[in-house]
Design goal:
mainly alpha, globular, about 600 residues
Length: about 600
């Protein structure tokens, strides 16, 4: 591993996007994808049921955590009628419980647990890896779900409230870790997979779409349980409501069991994380840099170079979560406006429909996110703008749509706009904020920075929950919710357009190469694809002017030098062998000459 005379300790790597000489492949596909032609052909032969199952389980099993998250957390607004029926003195008349605690504490204490989990598990995942972090948070979620399943057996109304809050917060602490771990793992797994590499965004959003599936499954399970236990009339019964809660939470616990079994028996460590970790520590050992010093240097220089990206990932998530969680947690208020006097059973049917429309948004996002003519940035700001338009129209026409005395056609227009906003939220910022926060950073800080952005997003959810809890629930007061949500939507669009870089078509390994230059203090020597104008934000182009460094020919030469220098390390050779930079013949010739 001794350095060649005249060579630096850290080598560059990245270059012109050119076709490999040996393998015929579509533009944008990686070397490793081309080398896996036989595997792809074998996979494509699995038609019918087996082929469909292969495709489904490739993203459904890794996304079980997001399924569970939506199943439990998004049920908050749907289970209130049952809680009010079982424990009316706590949740309705407030004889045994403080009304301020019910209105405010129950809305945001769980989110506080989620935020703590995002920060802690995201930070640890960049140190210990993705595998054990995913296993631990899955175990926490399972234990929290079991606690929630038995919560309706509490005999004291106040005792139930305390027990429920503790169980929700503990479950949320596990869910918080699921965000950075699932996103980073899905992106890295796709980047290292020959079959998925060219469709990284699609695969990551399909993993995330389990959130939509969990939401609609919870709504459907509650609806079915209501029918089973006779809760379809105008009046709910305590016994039937208790059974609905127990069975619905029990189903969620079963899903968590499947997740825990899968992760403890089959989940492997992220290949990309292992490679980057080995490369960094080997280079640090050559330079006699301690692990502690390496970590401190990494955090300081990363914040300097990627601070604006952390800002846009966080602020966009705040803007999205204000509208998303605000509407989700308060959707019963909107349904009361649309269908005053209807039974809880009827309202739940509309919840199922809204969840189904939202789920379609996830799948549309997965379909278009890797298209060069659409991609991440357009999808995010168009989604924000659509939400702005729908919400501002609802607010402007509130007297005709949602206020008392509104016409039937006005109410139907309100319903259509509300459902469209749910669709474009998923077919836009809710999907892309989760995706891009796991793509726009190098591997060694990916989970931690994703966790911080997600944590800031949940801050937006807390703001929404607290603010809406103080809003007059009359039809006049509810209209203000849409005005404020519209303002957050336009802010999200502006921030996205100015500061969000587009990673559509960019290999994640490029950011790891860029990070090695940064850690070596040689940022100005990097000329690779990560600084291509099409992969930079407007801020990075017109203010930072990073695109001036992009040079295909210089980067090709630098990449060849890096292959010569680092290919002695198996991890580095595996990483560079996946990259679509130089021809396969040239790569093999250079790497074999070094050995």
């Amino acid at each position: 591993r001794a350095q060649q005379p005249g060579q630096e300790s850290v080598g560059p790597a990245a270059g012109p996007q050119q076709q490999h000489l040996v393998f015929q492949q579509p533009a944008g596909r990686s070397l490793r994808a081309a080398m896996s032609g036989e595997m792809e052909m074998a996979t494509s032969r699995r038609k019918g049921v087996l082929g469909a199952l292969d495709w489904y389980f490739a993203w459904a099993l890794p996304g079980m955590g997001m399924f569970s998250e939506a199943y439990i957390i998004f049920s908050a607004g749907q289970i209130k009628p049952f809680q009010q029926t079982i424990y009316p003195t706590c949740w309705k008349t407030y004889v045994d419980c403080d009304p301020e605690m019910i209105k405010h504490l129950s809305g945001y204490i769980q989110i506080c647990g989620i935020m703590a989990g995002m920060l802690l598990w995201g930070f640890l995942a960049d140190i210990t890896g993705r595998k054990w972090g995913s296993r631990i948070v899955a175990a926490i979620m399972l234990s929290g779900c079991i606690l929630l399943t038995f919560s309706p057996y509490a005999t004291s109304p106040y005792g139930y409230f305390v027990y429920f809050m503790v169980a929700q917060t503990w479950y949320g602490f596990g869910v918080g870790g699921e965000y950075p771990l699932a996103s980073a793992s899905a992106a890295e797994r796709s980047a290292c997979s020959p079959e998925l590499r060219a469709y990284r965004g699609r695969q990551v959003i399909l993993v995330f779409s389990n959130q939509g599936m969990g939401n609609i499954t919870n709504a459907a399970v509650i609806l079915i349980c209501m029918a089973i236990f006779g809760q379809t009339g105008a009046v709910l019964t305590p016994g039937g409501s208790r059974n609905v809660l127990i069975l619905s939470y029990g189903f969620g616990a079963v899903a968590c069991v499947v997740m825990v079994v899968y992760r403890f028996m089959f989940l492997e460590e992220s290949e990309m994380f292992v490679e980057v970790d080995k490369i960094e520590h080997n280079l640090a050992a050559v330079e006699h840099v301690s692990n502690t010093k390496l970590m401190l240097r990494k955090q300081m220089v990363s914040l300097y170079y990627f601070g604006w990206r952390q800002m846009v990932a966080s602020v966009a998530w705040v803007c999205n979560d204000f509208a998303f969680y605000g509407n989700k947690l308060q959707q019963n208020i909107f349904l009361n406006l649309l269908y005053p006097g209807s039974t809880a059973y009827i309202k739940q049917q509309w919840n199922v429909l809204n969840s189904f429309i939202s789920l379609l948004g996830y799948y549309c996002a997965a379909w278009l996110v890797d298209k060069p003519w659409y991609g991440r940035v357009k999808m995010q700001y168009i989604g924000f703008l659509a939400m702005f338009v729908f919400y501002i129209v609802i607010y402007g026409q509130w007297e005709n749509m949602g206020a008392q005395g509104s016409t039937q056609s006005g109410l139907h227009a309100f319903q259509a706009l509300y459902y469209l906003s749910s669709f474009f939220n998923q077919f836009g910022p809710n999907a892309t904020t989760w995706l891009v926060a796991g793509e726009i950073f190098p591997t060694d800080i990916r989970a931690g920075y994703h966790g911080f952005a997600a944590c800031m997003g949940k801050l937006g959810a807390i703001i929404a929950t607290l603010w809406i809890s103080y809003i007059d629930v009359s039809s006049t007061g509810t209209g203000k919710v849409f005005l404020v949500s519209a303002l957050w939507g336009i802010c999200g669009a502006i921030v996205t357009i100015i500061w969000l870089p587009d990673t559509t078509g960019l290999e994640l390994e490029e950011y790891d190469r860029l990070q090695r230059y940064i850690l070596a203090g040689k940022f100005s020597d990097y000329h690779g694809e990560a600084l291509n104008r099409k992969h930079l934000s407007l801020w990075e182009i017109y203010v930072s002017k990073w695109h001036h460094q992009y040079d295909k020919e210089l980067d090709r030469k630098a990449f060849e030098e890096e292959v010569l220098r680092l290919s002695v390390m198996p991890a580095a050779k595996a990483e560079m062998g996946r990259m679509h930079v130089i021809s396969h013949e040239t790569f093999e010739k250079i790497s074999n000459s070094r050995v």
